[in-house]
Specification:
With 429 residues, the chain is an alpha/beta fold. Helices cover 31% and strands 21% of the residues. It is built from 13 helices and 20 strands. Bound molecules: inosinic acid. The site of inosinic acid (IMP) has 21 residues, from α4.
Length: 429
């Protein structure tokens, strides 16, 4: 029963949605298992653009069961908006969407905390979160006392828990925001969330049991990672990370499906690098080249619309995340974006305190100090958006792919040369 996982190997926004959408045809179940509405997946189909945050990209295939598993944090208002938006455009959202009763719920106090706390204790540099309440919700999950899960919204003591938690949150946050009392109204929160709960009820299920049954029944499962492995809470560029396990290690904890069932891991990378928010980024090009990549790649956040920081491909970082995530094959996205550049640089090592290193540093302070060691490759300077076979790519584009593959130690299986489904090259075809 083959299960596949799709993992972003950089700082997110690697265009995983397109790969998930393409691979969905070969699977029966598509699972989101970590993160929340901080993620933004863009799927372009038949000239139409769809932006998804929480709903798995498999939703466009009515035959496929979509699962939002227990490791995800759910903002019910934004999820309902997404569901309504899809339904309004004729996409079926019914029994084909399942939400875990174990998933933790994002409440208004989480949004307040996200805005109040970001940057308070990270040495002055804000994490630059998406302000979707993600970190505070995961903090409450781990802290346990104030956590409310989707399944809790249907229990008799839901009102009491809202009242107690609102009171406690007001007390805790009053030192940071005197007006917090006026912003958190337990009665209104209870009313709003009871309404959300009612509307979400048809989708709520024990997804862990469902997925374990599906695995045993031999169904083909596709795990859709959100964010990228360098944002992993345990293995990323801490503290400039998201609050879940966004590398391959999160599949099992977030979904409840043992890791040994994942038989193929597709690592998704851009042909260059981008990052949104704070934190070190060794190959960043805060210059005309970075701007050219940003403009050509439309590198503005799907969720927050923030301009993304852009730079050269970093093989040290991706070799690390490919190994960490157990990647079998690579999908190289947005290869058409650097098409105009006369030459491309690839970071093959770092220099730290006069030493050449190829292991990704654990400490952000070290990562801030590294000097990238670059190899320069000639560009191809021609339009590749109509190319459909690797052999038809310009020689310099083929050489670029070969070098990336060598440095990461994984074969390139998929190359994307444009946003549409059709603009995809499968190696070996
Ligand atoms: P949070 O996930 O909103 O707490 O944000 C933490 C960090 O992760 C910030 O730097 C965000 O910009 C980044 N981040 C979160 N989700 C995404 C994503 O889907 N793509 C890229 N960056 C993300």
């Amino acid at each position: 029963m083959p299960a596949t996982s799709v993992i972003g190997l950089q700082w997110g926004d690697e265009a995983k949605g397109k790969i998930v959408d393409l691979l969905t045809e070969q699977h029966d179940v598509v699972v989101r298992y970590q993160g929340g509405a901080n993620a933004g997946h863009t799927v372009v189909m038949g000239g139409q653009t769809y932006k998804l945050s929480l709903v798995p990209s498999g939703i466009f295939h009515p035959r496929v069961q979509c699962v939002v598993a227990g490791g995800v944090v759910i903002d019910p208002a934004s999820l309902l908006k997404e569901i309504d938006g899809l339904a309004g455009r004729g996409v079926t959202v019914g029994k084909n969407l399942m939400l875990s009763d174990r998933a933790h719920v994002i409440f208004p106090w989480h949004f307040e905390e996200d805005a109040l706390l970001d940057g308070l204790c990270t040495g002055g540099e804000p994490i630059g979160t998406t302000l979707r309440g993600i970190g505070p919700c995961y903090r409450d999950k781990v802290g346990r006392s104030f956590a409310i899960r989707l399944g809790d919204m249907y229990r008799d003591d839901f009102r009491r828990r809202i009242e107690q938690t609102t009171r406690a949150k007001i007390q805790m946050l009053a030192g940071l925001d005197e007006a917090i009392k006026t912003k958190l109204d337990a009665e209104k929160i209870f009313r709003d969330y009871s309404g959300y709960a009612e509307r979400l009820k048809p989708f709520v299920a024990d997804t862990t049991a469902y997925l374990l049954d599906a695995v045993e029944a031999g169904k083909k499962i596709l795990f859709e990672g959100a964010q990228g492995a360098l944002l992993d809470i345990d293995h990323g560029t801490f503290p400039f990370v998201t609050s879940s396990n966004s590398s391959g290690v999160g599949v099992s904890s977030g979904s409840g499906v043992p890791a040994r069932h994942v038989t193929k891991v597709v690592g998704v990378i851009k042909a260059y690098t981008s990052r949104v928010g704070g934190g070190p980024f060794p190959t960043e090009q805060d210059n005309a080249t970075g701007q050219q990549i940003r403009d050509r790649g439309n590198e503005y956040g799907t969720v927050t619309k923030r301009p993304r920081r852009c730079g050269w491909f970093d093989a040290v970082a991706v070799r690390y995340t490919a190994r960490l995530s157990g990647v079998d094959v690579l999908a190289v996205m947005l290869l058409d974006v650097p098409s105009e550049l006369p030459e491309l640089k690839v970071c093959v090592a770092y220099e730290l305190d006069g030493r050449r290193i190829t292991d990704f540093p654990a400490q952000v302070d070290d990562l801030r100090r590294v000097q990238p060691v670059y190899e320069t490759l000639p560009g191809w300077q021609q339009d590749i958006t109509e190319v459909r076979r690797i052999g038809d790519l310009p020689e310099n584009a083929q050489n670029y792919l070969t070098r990336i593959s060598e440095l990461i130690g994984r074969p390139v299986e998929i190359v994307s040369v444009g946003p549409d489904r059709e603009q995809t090259i499968f190696a070996g075809k």
